[in-house]
Amino acid sequence: MNYTSYPTIAQASGGSNFFMTIAAILASLLSFYSLLIWLRIVIGWIRIPTNPLSHWLGRIVDPYLDLFKPIKALRRERFDLTPLAALAALSVIQSMLRLYGSYGTITVGMVLALLLQTLWSYLVSPIFWFLLILLSVRLYFCYRPSPQTVGYVAMLDSLVGGLLNWVQRLFFPARSVNDRRLVTTSLIFILVLYLTSSALVRALVGLASRIGF
Question: Using CA atoms, how far apart are residues 161 and 157, in angstroms rounded to an integer?
Answer without folding.
Answer: 4
